[in-house]
Specification:
180 residues; seven-stranded mixed beta sheet; 10 strands; 2 domains; Nucleoside Triphosphate Pyrophosphohydrolase
Length: 180
């Protein structure tokens, strides 16, 4: 089946971080359908599942999208001129004060490819050591929350652990640990 063709793109809204576009797509049956998508200059992000002393190190953080405190792995954007691996090291140092001797890329995922062009690189971090970086973009110091690796099923059921990318990172980390 041939790929539908984008025939027209128009910006309908703009903010500091996002641009909303109406995209007219011509399908193979000759129908033209207007769809919306989000564009962002932040094309890549990282999420890291760090393990220290047989515990995942998570952080409690305010999630503006759902206006709740969430339980999350260290995460953030890949800055201009930075590789995802460099961003993973930086984000861990900024958010939990640790760096890692071993970072394993688990997978690159698209969160919502039907609406946004944005890759997230999912990592597992092992052999951690203290190395805080105090120049992060967090307005508050994030509260660390260790979680036993063997108790990951309860983490999956925790009401504050809701970000689908975190769930994917956890499951891929567990698969990696079980195979190595």
């Amino acid at each position: 089946m041939p790929v539908p063709k984008v025939i027209k793109t128009r910006t309908t809204a703009q903010s500091k971080w996002f641009q909303i576009e109406t995209v007219t797509v011509a399908y193979n049956n000759e129908q033209q359908i207007p769809l919306e998508r989000i564009r962002t200059p932040l094309k890549q992000a990282v999420i890291i599942a760090p393990i220290f002393d047989n515990h995942f190190i998570l952080a409690r953080e305010f999630m503006v999208g759902n206006e709740k405190m969430g339980l999350t792995f260290p995460k953030g954007k890949v800055d201009l001129g930075e590789t995802p691996l460099q961003a993973a090291h930086r984000e861990m140092r900024e958010e939990i004060g640790y760096d890692a001797n071993e970072l394993h890329l688990l997978k690159v995922v698209d969160s919502m490819p039907g609406y946004i062009q944005h890759e997230t690189h999912l990592f597992l971090a092992q052999d951690l050591y203290l190395n805080p970086l105090n120049s992060g973009d967090e307005p508050d110091t994030l509260e660390q929350q260790p979680w036993k690796v063997d108790d990951y099923r309860h983490l999956l059921n925790n009401a504050a652990f809701t970000d689908a990318r975190n769930v994917a990172t956890l499951m891929l980390a567990m698969a990696h640990l079980n195979n190595h």
